[in-house]
Design goal:
heterodimer, A: 73 residues, alpha+beta, Alpha-Beta Plaits, 2 helices, globular, B: 574 residues, alpha/beta, Methane Monooxygenase Hydroxylase, Chain G, domain 1, 7-stranded mixed beta sheet, 5-stranded mixed beta sheet, 18 helices
Amino acid sequence: MSIERIDPELCTGCGICVNSCPMDVIRMDEKGEKAIIKYPEECMCCDYCELDCPVDAIYVSPEKYAPLMVSWC
Amino acid sequence: MSQARVVETDVLVIGGGIAGCFAAIKAKEQGLDVTIVDKAYAGKSGSSIAAGGWWMVFNPEWGHDHDASMEDVTVNGEYLNNRDWDEIILKEAWATYRDLVSWGVEFPVASDKIEGYWDTYFTGPRAARAPNLPWGIVPLRHRKTSPVLRTQAEKVGIKIVDRIMITDLLKQDGKMVGAVGFSYDTGDLHVFKAKATITSGGNNCFRSPGFHTACLTGDAEAMAYRAGAEITGKEFPDTHFNLANYPAWKSNAELYAAYMYFTDAEGESINGTVGFDLFMEFAVHAGRGPVIWDLDAAAPGDVEAMREYVRKRANPVEAERIGLDYTRGGKYPCIGGSAAGVSSQQTSGVWVVDTKCATSLPGLYAAGDSCGARVCGASHRGPGFGVTGAAVTGKRAGLGAAEYALQAEKPVTDEKELARLKELIYAPAQRRSGFSPRWVTQVLQNTMIPYFILYIKHGERLQAALTIVEFMRDHLVPKLMAKDPHELRLTHETANMVLNAEMILRASLFRTESRGLHYREDYPRRDDPTWLAWTKVKKKQGRMNILKEPVPREWWPDLFKPYQQRYPERFPRE
């Protein structure tokens, strides 16, 4: 499913990944302390968040993923 | 979300990739106040994130041949290349390379020893069909270039505003005076008032998951079109390919760079030319797919060349993650046209009327992938023209916009027009019923991305797709809904993609011939007397109108030369 996890134990809250993502998948949590996966549907598997993370807290899976197409919505 | 932030500047640059950064830096050098606004993070977003290609260097002292270069790009571009622009890019490529070095970009080869002829990087039968490039190319380190450009832009005092979705250009008394958009973090309205505006927002793609360019949703062309500009070249699709099993695989450097040997599913070689072409799509259309990248056929020398190339490019390699080890061979299914919806680089885009990147709208300049300079004509030539073309058109746009801004008056914006645009921006957030942008995007993908619509074209199928896209334009786009500012961005992107789809289909229907990357099954030959011309779409009384702009006579091929000699590449059934 593209971006799979941001390890909250490792995340230092630096926010680099938020700016690395051109798709606005990642945001800081409400307290502004940790990065969270907010909009996974938009992930394009570019891996830039993972590559830019200074503490290797992010994992992007190579598995293909597409949301199910429902009739209208 | 109603608080408006207003920025006043001399030159506004929309999109901070390679083209936008070059444009901003050159405009700033003229002593002006310059602002870059980016949909994501200037220096990291757009095509620049994938710009691990080749920088062109052209230096006659090193044996680079001017006439051979012009001939190469002209034959490959099938006579639709703008030769004035090709001359400029060859001439100015060296200066952009020196700019990058002086700003701190490290190239993996020493600057006094430019290698990079085609055969240095390419092996196998695909390369054997092409002679050396007549110009030089230097491999770029993936993702290492544009962050340096951002740092340089900040250093010289350019203002950068990140994470703003620009929706529309501002017009006052027939002149372009900035742009409006919103923050998808806060939802706040942002108004940029500028004496001159440069659009460098990249190309369009349909959010296809086959390339890391899903952030490019044709915003630049869409907003320029809505403002009344002319958009050219939409009928020529980009055909970058990638691995089917991991479509967003970034390490495709190996795939592009080294052992370019492909077969159909039966194992028969289907190698096309060395420019970008439709060879994969032709095989699939003939029922011989999937296309296979056949590493088993690679000789030890090919593997060594690949290893060397990957080392020089210093690409992040996560090949292991998908079980790919190119040193051990293997057969890997490929997808053609993986950046579906992208049109040929710098051939498609906002029509520029001169070599200063001015558009038909006073005060609006275009650079990079959204600049319709027609650099490579009907088929993207590949190494060198993409990123270096972005830098050169960027520089030229920066200088052109600065020259204009220096004599322009302080921008005045019409409050009524601002109120109208503001209402358009936030309308999806007000709706309580309608359609989600993700669903509409998915319908659009399913309509446009099939190979038999976007690549292997036929009038009947194009018309069928156009009927659906027109329905989407009239019935789905006006009812897009957004729950939050993030989704508000999606609604505007979706509307822009639908508009780009209509441009692609209309331009493709209009060009009743085949040429370069545009293949019509119902018109499988080039038609020189009729179609040595560019297409332009333009809004007229609210509808999409399409125009033909003839290629100057002096750039035509010799029509007494036999067809087969004018055009070395064959289309199926021509």
